[in-house]
Design a protein that fits this description.
The complex is a heterodimer of chains A (612) and B (530). Chain A is 43% helix and 13% strand. Chain B has 21 helices and 15 strands. Chain B has 530 residues and is of the alpha/beta class. The chains are: A alpha/beta (612), B alpha/beta (530).
Chain lengths: 612, 530
């Protein structure tokens, strides 16, 4: 039962869900334990927690375990009023027969991986922190071999292309006296590796990006150099979009009536920067709500999530300051850090102990060469790492940051709306007081079905950023339409629309992603990331499997994202499954069936067998 | 083979010889042989040593010293690695340093002036064509970059509405990963077709489009020659590219040639191969901060002569120049092929949200994997592309909008030029007008003073019913001036639109005239009085 808060007559679709802990353990035990013993042997992850002796590792284990087991019970009573009678969207069971409640609404139950101590004991270590699964030697060798073959054949084709003057890339040779526009490896990679399989990306969609999408099929007249849209379309189950809370599915019912009127009063954009004439009452209203939602004094919204990071960071730190960044941080943070002129150091991904070492070292030495003390030190982490599906160990990091008195910037691009009992993101999930995080950044593209991003912080910080960041002073402001969309989505999530749709969405997302993750781990795949995270990367490794997985999935009506270099390290190609609250349990089961088929076809059970 | 006796004999000889050799080796390398040789070694060494001491004592002294020196070098010398110098710090010392270190505040403390400013901020409540309701007051919009008035057109709004109905609001993903909606692709094709380029690529923000495009091509070791007046997104792009950069004086082609010649001379002097470095000239079509056009024909002649590629940012000029709004290339009659990389905006003249880059397939295709703002950011909501397409169709259908815009711009610039005490700094045909205080009046003023005066004039205009803003720069850019940064002179920044009526423009001029007269008088009084 996915929604115990709803009446007993749940629709047939939801009835077969298995969220009770007993059922979960029973189900996983048979098949899982076997896979466990193998993965235990090969997995570095299983060994590390015991062998590591520093206090932070222990703290981290504790905090992560605690957050996965008890966060649900701690703060389950949201501010939402009594659920209204009609919550009508296709993925929620009808609640019409539910009697109007006067007290706080019954908590929406959330499916958790280890709800009991017994469950914990039976679960293998790699289940707990699946992201530390190392690549098997066989996969590593074959992957390198695969790239070697691809590169060799690429060069052979280049050679013959030049020799016989027949190549679709000949036009790209530069005019005399000019350097080639594109150089070396990057260009070679695009031509000879990416173009072979470019049909796996940028597939155009001609419907709302909900749980089911219609994808336009494409043809290429020239071996994938150019892709042309055809009239053919294909219905797919969508495991690719960041539509975490399913606002793309029920947009017509949940948001439309609140967004369309904005178009009557405003144009779609104000064509002006925030500090000029680009601020509307929609912006003001949204900023107030965002600040209240994330638990900060004030907020500032930007037109683009990428731009939020890349224009805020230079406004905060500059020469003489130090940025300590997680190694897996998003490209927008990297861009912002580079543009700021501050020095950047990294710490081992998600490791508070490593952060402490880097901090001590940095403070003790000061600036390079002059050894003057740093002006400011800013630690940058993300709530959920988008390529790893991993949840930040915020508690441990906050502890270190507080001890050393440095500033903390948390990018909640993927975690806002998706984590925490009421969707308030990583702070709520990790049990951290938002006051302990100096800057909270997030985007509206994912959970809220909009566009752009926000920065939330103290009033003085936001007032300063309004005047100091290029995104506020120079760039055009966020579209008014998007403002009203995000405002409405936030109201729904906060339960201020008078229904419990928001809470149900959050619970459904959690249940769907935990179910999906559990089943994939049971299949014996190498699955990265943590439970409760809606991003579930499954490792493919071999370059050939990238295309094979995407194409085979597509022909079976499954839209999944496959990721390779440059978004990941070159050997760690993966498919990234994004689960949404808009998926019904039936759809998840169907997706799992198809994936299991593909897993057999492509031999992806790396946790069971070194050779997959 | 066996029939040849001589060959057989020589073979036998060889085997015999080998056999003998083997026997001899065995004898010599037998255990006894080795033992004997080892036992004799000290005696032989002693003999050799004594012989040496006897015949060449100098050698012995020098060589002994050398051997001792080598031993000292390898085993006894204390190595001091400057990078590990701090490892001598004890944990306690580090703790103390940590204790002592105090970071600066993250941002300058709260300023009461900010509260006041924020309370006076212009908050738009309604938009209808050139009329806006700001803070409950009806104003004529002289600030938005909606140059052709397309954002408010029924057709554009209808397109946005239809797209919202079909796709919902957000696209929920980056372009690479099922965030490509068919209208994104169609908008790109429409833009490429409109400009006559091979392909176009769309970004979800105009500024990010600019700051992603340039770093996709120019990397460390490449060379950028940029106008010193370029606006912030290009500055950021230059920063991000980490390429070498040289600036030339704003819109000064002679200075540009000087820089180009310098580079060429350096090439000759250092025997550098120009083919190993990607070289771009980076300019804006219409400079946002100055309101003047870049002299494209002269620039292209120089670029051809010195073999540079051209990056042209048409964020503000697209839609405003040329007979059909194709921008600067059309305005000057320059073939598009001469501009290798060109950014255009759909959030200014087209009244939607986002930016695009157009060029050859090679240029565009490369950005689909290397444009940071394209690759690593969610795509724009589909309605923005639909709206942009509708606006583009309108522009194609009504090229007279561009003519109208120019007439308005020229009229306004001339009318403003007649106001005593003010000076129009921008070019006459520019739809972005920069109006400053005339030098004769502002002689001896500080920058801050001038800014305050202009701010007061803008406020007076707002009170009179015209939304006029001053050009603003970030706190950081203003601070940078003292460290040698460049900042355009303070100004009132007006944006004229094709749909402004003559009466509206006349009203705006009147409002500015009155505002300027009042404020300047008051200020002059304060100066002489104080």
């Amino acid at each position: 039962m996915a929604f115990p808060g709803s009446p007993p007559q749940t629709s047939g679709e939801e009835a077969n869900t298995t969220s009770s802990p007993a059922a979960t353990t029973a189900m996983t035990n048979g098949k899982a334990r076997r896979s466990l013993s193998t993965s235990g042997r090969t997995s570095r992850a299983a060994a590390t927690p015991t062998s590591r002796s520093n206090p932070f590792a222990k703290l981290r284990r504790l905090s992560s375990r605690k957050s996965t087991t008890t966060a649900a019970d701690a703060r389950s009573t949201g501010p939402s009023s009594a659920p209204a009678s009609s919550s009508s969207s296709h993925f929620f069971p009808p609640v019409t027969s539910q009697p109007a409640q006067t007290g706080p609404p019954a908590p929406v139950k959330i499916d958790r991986p280890f709800s009991t101590v017994a469950g914990l004991r039976d679960m293998p270590k790699s289940y707990e922190r699946g992201h530390e699964v190392p690549i098997t030697w066989f996969a590593a060798i074959t992957t390198y071999f695969g790239y070697a073959v691809l590169i060799l054949f690429g060069h052979i084709r280049d050679f013959f292309g030049r020799m016989f003057g027949m190549s679709r890339y000949l036009a790209t040779s530069p005019p005399p006296g000019y350097a080639p526009l594109l150089k070396d490896w990057e260009n070679f990679y695009t031509r000879r590796l990416y173009h072979r399989i470019r049909d796996c990306w940028e597939r155009p969609v001609c419907s709302a990006p909900g749980g089911r999408i219609t994808v336009v099929e494409r043809d290429s007249p020239d071996g994938n150099k150019t892709m042309l849209m055809t009239k053919r379309t294909r219905e797919c189950l969508n495991l690719g979009s960041y539509n975490y809370l399913g606002f793309a599915d029920d947009w017509q019912t949940s948001c439309k009536s609140h967004v369309m009127p904005t178009l009557d009063n405003f144009n779609s954009c104000l064509c002006s920067a925030r500090m000029d004439l680009g601020t509307s009452r929609e912006h003001v209203r949204l900023e107030e709500l965002v600040a209240r939602y994330v638990g900060k004094e004030a907020a500032l919204v930007y037109n683009m999530g990428f731009g939020t990071n890349s224009t805020t960071i230079p406004a905060l730190v500059g020469r003489g300051s130090l940025i300590i960044s997680d190694t897996m941080n998003h490209s927008s943070i990297v861009a912002g850090s580079r543009a700021s002129g501050a020095l950047v150091r990294t710490f081992v991904h998600n490791d508070a102990a490593s952060l402490e070492r880097v901090l001590r070292d940095a403070i003790a030495r000061g600036m390079p060469r002059t050894h003057r003390p740093w002006r400011k030190i800013l630690v940058m982490v993300e709530g959920i790492y988008s390529m790893e599906g991993e949840i930040c160990n915020l508690k441990g990091i906050v502890e270190v940051v507080k001890r050393y008195g440095v500033y903390l910037y948390v990018d909640e691009a993927h975690s806002i709306g998706a984590l925490g009992e009421t969707g308030r993101g990583i702070c709520e999930y990790a049990g951290v007081d938002p006051a302990d995080v100096d800057i909270l950044m997030g985007t509206f593209t994912k959970s809220f079905g909009g566009m752009g991003g926000y920065i939330a912080g103290d009033k003085a910080l936001i007032q300063y950023l309004r005047r100091a960041s290029a995104g506020s002073v120079y760039h055009n402001s966020l579209s008014t339409l998007v403002c009203s969309q995000v405002y409405r989505a936030l109201r729904v999530i906060m339960g201020e629309d008078g229904t419990d749709t928001g809470r149900r969405k959050i619970a459904a997302l959690r249940n769907n992603s935990n179910h999906m993750r559990r089943e994939l781990i049971k299949m014996g795949c190498h699955v990265y990331g943590d439970y409760d995270s809606p991003i579930i990367p499954v490792m493919l490794y071999n370059p050939t499997k990238i295309a094979a997985f995407s194409r085979e999935a597509f022909t079976r009506g499954l839209a999944v994202v496959v990721v390779g270099f440059p978004a990941t390290p070159i050997v760690l190609s993966r498919t990234r499954i994004c689960v949404s609250a808009g998926h019904t349990r039936k759809e998840i089961e169907r997706a799992l069936e198809v994936i299991e088929e593909l897993v057999d076809l492509l031999r992806l059970r790396y946790a069971n067998n070194v050779m997959g | 083979m066996a029939a040849d006796p001589s060959l057989g004999d020589s073979f036998i000889d060889l085997t015999i010889a080998l056999e003998q050799l083997w026997q001899q080796m065995r004898r010599e390398l037998s255990r006894d042989g080795v033992k004997e040789w080892l036992l004799g070694a000290p005696a032989r060494y002693k003999k050799w040593w004594l012989h040496l001491v006897e015949h060449a004592p100098g050698h012995v002294v020098v060589e002994t010293a050398l051997i001792l020196f080598i031993i000292w070098l390898i085993f006894l010398r204390k190595t001091v690695d400057p990078s590990k110098e701090d490892s001598f710090l004890s944990e306690k010392e580090i703790d103390q340093l940590v204790e002592e270190w105090q970071p600066e505040p993250l941002v300058p403390g709260p300023d009461p002036a900010w509260d006041e400013e924020d309370a006076q901020a212009l908050v738009v409540e309604e938009v209808d064509g050139t009329r806006v309701v700001v803070n409950g007051k009806k104003l004529i919009n002289m600030a938005s970059f909606d140059f052709l008035g397309l954002a408010g057109r029924g057709e554009v709004k209808e397109a946005a509405r239809a797209a919202l109905n079909k796709y919902g609001c957000g696209s929920c993903g980056p372009r690479g990963f099922y965030g490509s909606i068919d209208v994104h692709v169609m908008a790109e094709q429409a833009m490429a077709a409109f400009l006559g380029a091979e392909e176009a690529i769309s970004y979800s923000d105009a500024a990010s489009s600019v700051s992603s495009t340039l770093p996709a091509f120019a990397k460390k070791g490449d060379l950028l020659i940029a106008d010193e007046g370029v606006y912030e997104p290009i500055q950021t792009a230059i920063n991000l590219s980490r390429a070498q950069v040289r600036y030339f004086r704003h819109n000064d082609m002679e200075d540009l040639e000087r820089v180009l010649r310098e580079v060429a001379e350096e090439d000759r002097r250092l025997d550098r191969n120009e083919r190993e470095q990607r070289r771009f000239i980076v300019v804006e079509g219409l400079y946002k901060n100055f309101g003047d056009l870049c002299p494209l024909p002269a620039l292209i002649a120089l670029k051809r002569q010195y073999r540079y590629r051209l990056y042209l940012d048409q964020t503000f000029s697209f839609g405003c120049f040329g007979t059909a709004g194709r921008g600067l290339a059309e305005h000057f009659g320059v073939p598009l092929a001469d501009i290798e990389v060109m950014s255009v905006s759909i959030s200014h003249a087209l009244g939607s949200v986002g930016g695009m880059c157009v060029g050859t397939s090679e240029v565009v295709d490369h950005q689909r994997l290397s444009g940071a703002g394209y690759c690593y950011s969610a795509s724009a909501p589909p309605f923005t592309s639909s709206a942009a397409m509708a606006a583009l169709a309108l522009l194609e259908k009504e090229p007279e909008l561009v003519t109208k815009l120019r007439e308005n711009a020229v009229w306004l610039a001339r009318a403003l030029g007649k106001i005593p005490g003010l000076k129009v700094r921008s070019q006459e045909i520019s739809p972005v007008l920069h109006v400053g205080v005339a030098e004769a009046v502002s002689n001896g003023w500080t920058r801050e003073e001038e800014e305050r005066v202009l701010q007061a004039i803008a406020r007076a205009c707002v009170d009179a019913g015209y939304a006029v803003v001053t050009s603003k720069y970030t706190v950081l850019d203003v601070e940078a001036v003292s460290k040698g940064g460049l900042l355009p002179e303070p100004s009132l920044r007006l944006a004229v639109s094709a749909v402004h009526t003559r009466a509206e423009l006349e009203g705006a001029v009147e409002a500015i005239r009155r505002g300027a007269a009042g404020v300047l008088k008051k200020h002059a009084g304060r100066r002489t009085g104080g």
